[in-house]
């Protein structure tokens, strides 16, 4: 594996990249972490038309097209698909937690979960959702990407942004890229609605775009799903 390179683009380009990371990660956070909400879906179509990250990629465009088509599906159908994929009560078709893929027991709150929690705390972020849930839920991981990008955008013009790209690179390489593409693959295979098939395809493309922007490369890891 080659040594990843830290983003060395001009300041104005870095700011645009961080803004696109923040906007797209916020949307992906809500779509992965929360059951479908009518008020979110009602506003989503316009945003999908102006998707800010990886929009030049064919898989991103294909994912956006499927999601846009899927917005015409009945709301209860979307809710059932979300539950079957990520919530239960039956066996999950696409568990959204990293530790399920990275530990042989395929359980939550494993060592990988604790490592993600430690990474959040290192940067001063505490996950508070009102529920006791694993920190390595892909939705919460996108929330962290958005939060970290926001921290970079709040810096003074005299402060370098490379440290934020370095942090994004480390988080993606160590904690997301080893397993999240497999989750996306499962969602594409197992979803019964175009909307969630599209979410899997879109997210897969966004992860590649994030890797390209930050220089992240997935740490080698054995997957158990």
Structure report:
63% of the residues lie in helices and 0% in strands. The protein is globular and about 50 Å long. The two termini are 24 Å apart.
What would a concise description of this structure say?
With 225 residues, the protein is mainly α.
Topology record:
Elements: H1 11-33, H2 38-49, H3 58-70, H4 75-87, H5 98-102, H6 111-122, H7 138-153, H8 162-176, H9 180-190, H10 194-214
SSE pattern, N- to C-terminal: HHHHHHHHHH
CATH superfamily: TorD-like
Total domains: 1
Which CATH class?
Mainly Alpha
**CATH fold topology:** TorD-like
**Strand element count:** 0
Give the proportion of residues in helices.
55-70%
Low-confidence stretches: none
The assigned CATH architecture is Orthogonal Bundle
Name the shape in a single word.
globular
The share of residues in extended strands comes to: under 5%
Amino- and carboxy-terminal Cα gap: 24 Å
Largest sheet: none
Compute the average pLDDT: 93
- Compute the number of helices: 10
Structural class: mainly alpha
Rounded to an integer in angstroms, the radius of gyration calculated over CA atoms is: 17 Å
Structure characteristics:
single chain, 225 residues, mainly alpha, 10 helices, 63% helix
């Amino acid at each position: 594996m080659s040594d990843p390179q830290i983003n060395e683009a001009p300041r104005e380009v870095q700011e645009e990249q961080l803004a696109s990371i923040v906007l797209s990660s916020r949307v992906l956070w809500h779509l992965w972490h929360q059951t479908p909400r009518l008020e979110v879906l009602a506003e989503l179509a316009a945003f999908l038309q102006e998707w800010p990250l990886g929009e030049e990629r064919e898989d991103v465009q294909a994912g956006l097209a499927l999601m846009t088509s899927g917005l015409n599906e009945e709301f209860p159908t979307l809710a059932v698909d979300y539950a079957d994929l990520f919530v239960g009560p039956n066996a999950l078709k696409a568990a959204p937690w990293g530790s399920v893929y990275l530990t042989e027991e395929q359980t939550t709150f494993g060592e990988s979960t604790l490592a993600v929690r430690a990474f959040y705390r290192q940067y001063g972020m505490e996950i508070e959702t009102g529920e006791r849930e694993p920190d390595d839920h892909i939705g919460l991981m996108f929330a962290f990407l958005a939060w970290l990008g926001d921290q970079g955008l709040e810096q003074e013009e005299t402060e370098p942004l490379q440290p934020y790209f370095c942090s994004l690179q480390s988080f993606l390489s160590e904690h997301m890229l080893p397993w999240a593409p497999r989750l996306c693959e499962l969602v594409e295979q197992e979803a019964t609605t175009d909307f969630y098939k599209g979410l899997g395809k879109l997210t897969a493309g966004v992860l590649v775009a994030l890797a390209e922007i930050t220089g992240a490369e997935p740490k080698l890891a054995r997957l158990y799903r």
